[in-house]
Give the backbone structure.
Amino acid sequence: MKLAKTLCAALGFALAAGTLHAQEITLRSADIHPDGYPTVEAVKYMGELVSERTKGRIKIEVMNNATLGNEKDTIEQTRFGVIDMNRVNAAPFNNLVAETTVLGLPFLFRSTEHMHKTVDGPIGDQVLAAFEPHGLIGLAFYDSGARSFYTTKKPIEKLEDLKGMKIRVQQSDLWIAMMEAFGANPTPMPMGEVYSSLETGVVDGAENNWPSYESARHFEVAKNYTLTEHSLNPEILVISKIAWDKLTPEDQTVLRQAAKDSVGKMRELWSAREKVSEEKVRAAGNTIIKVDKTAFSAAMKPVYDRFVTDPKMKALLEQVQAVQ
Ligand code: GTR
């Protein structure tokens, strides 16, 4: 009896000590953007929430400025648990997680509101869930505005102007096909190589949203910005399944919730940054061109025909289109 009591006391002590010294966890999260960019700030904000909600036990360290590598490489490292978390645009995930392709389809979303409603609802959940068999857990979607073309020499005023132009694209088959359908010559490469490629004439142009066009200083070397607004492809925040499986179910819930809670903050930061970036580019005297999007959009049929073929993709597309 005495022995049992002693054992119980020892066990109780060990358990209490275990709780007191519960392991501290620091999750490293990759991003290619600099400090102050909305994606970076949103993950930092999520980190604050996580730290608050776990009494400082779990922290997120944002390793930005591409210090951990370009997006395609960091995705692989995240799958293998070398990097814990990653904030990447949907495009570099396309070849890995087919469901992400739907969100990048050209001229799909009627408005930002349509995109928000899609990613905030069951379709968004379905796309996030599709990451798991690939070693990743999808946590949240962040805004990325509308992508438009920019060129160094010849401005794009109509669809025909894109014919034969060398245009940098993200490393995704969907995006390569999209450029081909626009009549351009696609050159896939990581974001970090775009500035010098524009400067040295390796490419004639690229495409991105206002904040990236400004923040990566592409606007200094490609001064014609044509508002085709051809895609509202969102950003995606993921965590490595290897890191995830080491967390308790309670901690997983905290992380999931904090990621969701950072979305509203990101949207505020995003719309403010879009304005600031646009003003900066306009103040620099760049040529901003408005175009009739009809011909650009009509040229995209082959992209839909090629990527929306199996019943799963067809159903997803129909669901997105039906979102009101
Ligand atoms: C940006 C996006 C980045 C990256 C980049 C690119 O809009 O935030 O994650 O994908 O575009 O074009 O490579």
Remarks:
- The pocket of beta-D-galactopyranuronic acid is lined by residues 32, 39, 71, 88-89, 91, 144, 170, 191, 208-209, 212, 235 (CB under 6 Å).
- The chain is about 50% helix and 20% strand.
- The first helix runs from residue 2 to 20.
